[in-house]
From TrEMBL:
UniProt cross-references to Pfam families, sorted A to Z: APH (PF01636)
InterPro entries per record: ACAD10-like, ACAD10_11_N, Aminoglycoside_PTrfase, Kinase-like_dom_sf
Top-rank taxon: Bacteria
Record domain Aminoglycoside phosphotransferase: where: 31-257
Protein name: Phosphotransferase
Length: 344
């Protein structure tokens, strides 16, 4: 992860605040913004005593319930004693006057972040091990008892997909620049094809993908799962289907998916193999309505990207140029979802 200098942190206020509230922080030396990320700006904080990571809400007008860095802090703190690998969080600041918005500080985890799902720098056996680790960590998350870690009230149990379709439709409409017929058709289909609630409830990450993880410097072990902004109580298949979109996304361009590549030659499991492995780890026999879960995942990602696009146009995006490119992919996301529906 490369870092780029930024002037978006008020160092004169931030330095004394961190020295007073973060244990063994020392004195602030520098704050650099990581180039990756579109939602909550993230900074590498260097002090006289070490390195830390600061994640903040972006400045400017924001959509309701978006950029919930306080929820990220809460769930990572709760998962610290589980089998789910998370960074150690150190402090949450809810006082907007310090740097202009809410933020939290966590430990800096040294390791590898893979930005391309094809893992071109690795060998086939290494790739398979990486995907196995992701699968195991996802199953571990969904096995956590929310009540046992103090997260029984982290979301509303039941009717997850019905509520999510309504929520993301509202978010999409709030960010809509011009009509996209495929999105309108997709929303209509999701409402009409809504499966009955099966009663399954778990903690869900909400953005479970390979570039939101830090792996050990050499090996396949996950040291930390990052970016918990969209986490909630939900249905575990939402996370699984969201990650499985990667198998269908284009292998070239911004998404760097696995579409069209020779999975066997790469040593990467097929979508069916990955789902089967997850089911074995989770004790699930059969997944019904798989096309719905995939279509919902494409819709949700499209709605998120539309929000990123709107923030880029408004000048509030963490990476405006990339945000505009992501926004241009919204029609493609909707078309891919509709193709899943047609081929079911």
């Amino acid at each position: 992860m490369t870092a780029q200098a930024t002037a978006h942190l008020e160092a004169e206020r931030l330095g004394p605040y961190l020295a007073a509230h973060v244990p063994a922080f020392g004195q602030l030396v520098s704050a650099e913004k990581f180039a990756g990320g579109q939602s909550n700006p993230t900074f590498l904080i260097t002090s006289t005593e070490g390195r830390f990571v600061l994640r903040r809400k972006p400045p400017g007008a924001l959509l309701k319930s978006a950029h919930a860095v306080d929820r990220e802090y809460r769930i990572m703190a709760a998962l610290a004693q589980t089998d789910v690998p998370v960074p150690h969080v150190l402090h949450l600041c809810t006082d907007d006057s310090v740097i202009g918005s809410m933020f939290y500080v966590m430990e800096h985890v040294e390791g590898r972040i893979f930005w391309d799902g094809k893992l071109p720098e690795l060998q086939p056996d290494e790739r398979r091990a990486i995907y196995d680790s992701m699968n195991a960590a996802l199953a571990a998350l969904h096995k956590v008892d929310p009540a046992a870690v103090g997260l029984a009230d982290y979301g509303k149990p039941g009717s997850y997909f019905e509520r999510q379709v309504a929520r993301w439709t509202e978010q999409y409409r709030a960010s809509e620049i011009h009509p996209i017929p495929a999105m309108d058709a997709l929303i209509e289909w999701l409402v009409s094809a809504m499966p009955e609630d099966d009663g399954r409830v778990s903690l869900v990450h909400g953005d479970y993908r390979i570039d939101n993880m830090i792996f050990e410097p050499s090996g396949a072990r996950i040291l930390a799962v990052l970016d918990w902004e969209l986490s909630t109580l939900g249905h575990p298949l939402a996370d699984l289907a969201y990650q499985c979109m990667q198998w269908r996304l284009p292998s070239e361009g911004a998404f760097r998916g696995l579409g069209g590549i020779d999975r066997q030659a790469y040593g990467i499991p097929t979508e069916a193999e990955y789902v089967e492995l997850y089911c074995k780890r989770s004790g699930v026999d059969v997944i019904g309505n798989w096309p719905f879960y995939l279509a919902f995942s494409f819709f949700r990602l499209a709605a998120i990207l539309q929000g990123v696009y709107k923030r880029a146009l408004d000048g509030n995006a963490s990476n405006p140029e990339r945000g505009r490119r992501m926004g241009e992919a919204v029609p493609m996301m909707a078309d891919m979802a509709l193709e899943v529906v047609r081929s079911r």
